[in-house]
Write a structure and sequence with these properties.
heterodimer; A: alpha/beta; Rossmann fold; 7-stranded mixed β-sheet; 7 strands; about 25% helix; B: Outer Surface Protein A, domain 3; 3-stranded antiparallel β-sheet; 5 helices; 3 strands
Chain lengths: ~210, ~120
Amino acid sequence: MDLRNSDTAAGDTEPPLSDTVRDALKIVVVGGFGAGKTTMVGSVSEIRPLSTEETMTQAGVGIDDISRVEHKRTTTVAFDFGRISLDERRVLYLFGAPGQERFWFLWDRLFSGTLGAIVLVDTRRLEDSFYCLDRLEAHSTPFVVAVNRFPGPRPPLDRVRDALSLPEDVPIVDCDARRRESAKSVLITLVRYLTRLAEAGAPGPMAAAERSTP
Amino acid sequence: MNRRRLAEENPDRLYTVTGGRAQADDDGLDLVALIVAEDEPVPGMQSEHAAILRLCRDHPMAVVELASRLRMPVGVVKILLLDLRDTGRVTVRHPSSATAPARRADQETLKQVLLGLEKL
């Protein structure tokens, strides 16, 4: 294999993980196409965001609805990721994952044990988020919603909350995915929310009201 | 970001890399399991095995990062990693969540994550 032209050479200049790191944690950023997932991952990651792919054959399908993929032999999804070294023992991997339907067939294989998720929303295409919210609820993955502020009208957060039928306890915040401080603040919002859930002994987020898919 | 899509990769080559083996349903390797090389590459070793050993020689590297840097699908890299693990050439630091993936992270872990994020 020719590695000379691969990312390996560039990777040598990036901070490698400390040898003392024992535990890796996961947080996933999901959202519609163009919502800013890769941008958000990149703005807090200590390495340049990397991408990779995973494939799944039909035989690997477990509990999800197989009827939608019966004409395909394999499903391939691409995703981006970055990392944040938290302390000498822990590293956090941040994944930017597409919210499209086929992606969710791979959720359990890729993201079991995920701490929680950030749903990145573009208010110009709110309906792109509906499917993500439904699937996260179905997987009992706790999440917060971050509204990426693009140029144009900015509907207030309580209106976005209503439009998404978000349960009262699920945090929703504004963010600018390009800014490190903003992305960091969203991550902190998620972890504080997870802490509240853990303190309350909650099994997961409450089911949202029925959400109509356009 | 890596712009060359894996979809353009030659499937025959990936088939050869794994000796035609398919991905196991439950391979026991998490996406963020950290891999540590315990051995140097040796002459005659399959080049992909040698490349993995070089990448995680001095520092641990997560499965997903190995896959990205080797430009191979995660499932293919997992098969190669199991070869290396079974022959003692790499060790695996499993994430704490792997022991009980259905369980929520404990409060102590969340507290440490929060402290780490606040320091950024």
